[in-house]
Amino acid sequence: MNRNDITEKIISTKVSKGIKWSDVADKVGQSKEWTTAACLGQMTLNDEQARVLGDIFSLSEEEQKWLKVVPYKGSLPTQVPTDPLIYRWYEIVNVYGATIKELIHEEFGDGIMSAIDFSMDITRTADPKGDRVNVVLSGKFLPYKTY
Q: Which residue among the candidates 8, 22, 75, 88 is catalytic per the annotation?
């Protein structure tokens, strides 16, 4: 048994029971974005969070222990993603990455946006031309230090 086995069990149970990630997040007490990432094997849960997921997804105590192990982060199976939705994010970074970098450096200076001190919010906005996907990424600015 490994973390991937637990992730597959969570996904299978979610599908078979018709569970929504937002409902899981409400029970875990975290955002739907963080909770989904955790359920997909990308975050480390504490004892209580693992217990709650254990109850929701019928995980044994041994399986719950895997939810508390620090994961190997990065879930893409290939360097260039082939899933159309994930590929669009790859495309966004390819097309707008240099622009994003330039504007962050102009506003903040030499540094990076943290993916550790970070939050994300995904929402839907109705639009007569087709509903819009709104994604807000918020990461702490970390300046490079001189030494």
A: 88
CATH code of 15's domain: 1.10.260.40
Q: What is the pTM of this model?
A: 0.84
C-alpha angle 20/23/24, rounded to 5°? 90
DSSP 71: P
pLDDT tens, the chain, 147 aa long: 999 999 999 999 999 999 999 999 999 999 999 999 999 999 999 999 999 999 999 999 999 999 999 998 887 778 898 999 999 999 999 989 989 999 999 999 999 999 999 999 999 999 999 999 999 999 999 999 989
Three-state DSSP at 133 gives strand
Q: Which of 8, 48, 91, 102 is catalytic?
A: 91
> Which residues span the domain enclosing 104?
84-143
Active site residue 102: no
